[in-house]
Amino acid sequence: ATESQSSVDLYGALDAYSKAAEYVPDAREAISGQAHVLLLLNHRAGLGEEYYAQGIRSLRDAWPHQAGAGFAYSDKHVPGREKTLRRMREVDRLLADERMALAAGFEEQGLYGAARNEYRLILLLDPQRDEAREAERRATREAAAADLLDEADMLIRKGRIDEAARVLQEGRASTESQDEAFVGLLLQAEQARYRVMYEEALVLEADFQYAAAVDAYDRLLQEAEYFEDATSRVETLRSFIELAEELYRKAAEADSPQDELRFLREIDVFWPTYRDIEYRLSALGDGEGS
């Protein structure tokens, strides 16, 4: 554990201290080592120097280096001395009370990982505290859900919308306190997906693939019902398609090359790639056809 902590492998150190405590349940060094690492993990997570300093000071002042160590020494020389054991438990409970208030505050702020670590620290001090055990399970579950929120947010930023939606559905099923955050990010993912569909339709429209663009806008509006100017755009494109068909028919039925040219030029204004009008305009000697 000491080697892992020296190399800043805090989770490795925590596991090693926990294993040491399993071998020697009353080993204060192993218990205090776990407590120290839990404080370091929260400090690393961004709680700041003041949090860490106060945590270390609290442990130092109450347990184990002074009060706890002194009572342990007394118990070593007078085994089973009830007064000593009682005072040791009192010190641990007082410190656990102090940390409970702090852990609850972290939960209220949505700092579930920090709360989980505090509850673990409390259980080191007072293993019989059932409310801390239940709170630790709750905070662990919410911390995992918060990690899924962060993962989904990153996926949305990368444009991996379907993956983000799956992660959000998984996380929402596991949380009791963050449903609003999950709903908000699900809505954001939905809007991002609509944006992708809208941009794809815009590209088709700009490339004069009007029929394909209409289909793309229709797919968007079937899901979104409304998205920016998609409704007006698809209506405009439908009118272009109808008008082009009508003008093309008139050009085919025109009585003179001049009338044919006029109808084809009208199509060229809004749909220069429609069917074969580029070739026909050129054949009719229209220098404006392209």
Describe the protein:
With 290 residues, this protein is mostly helical. It is 81% helix and 0% strand. It contains 14 helices and no strands. It has helices spanning 2-6, 10-23, 28-47, 49-62, 67-77, 82-108, 112-125, 130-157, 161-174, 179-206, 210-224, 230-252, 257-270, 277-283. α8 (130-157) runs parallel beside α10 and α11 (210-224) packs antiparallel against α12. The longest helix has 28 residues, at 130-157. The radius of gyration is 35 Å and the shape is rod-shaped. The chain starts with a helix and ends in a 7-residue tail after the last helix. The model is unreliable at 64-75 (pLDDT under 50).
List keywords for this structure.
290 residues; mainly alpha; 81% helix; rod-shaped
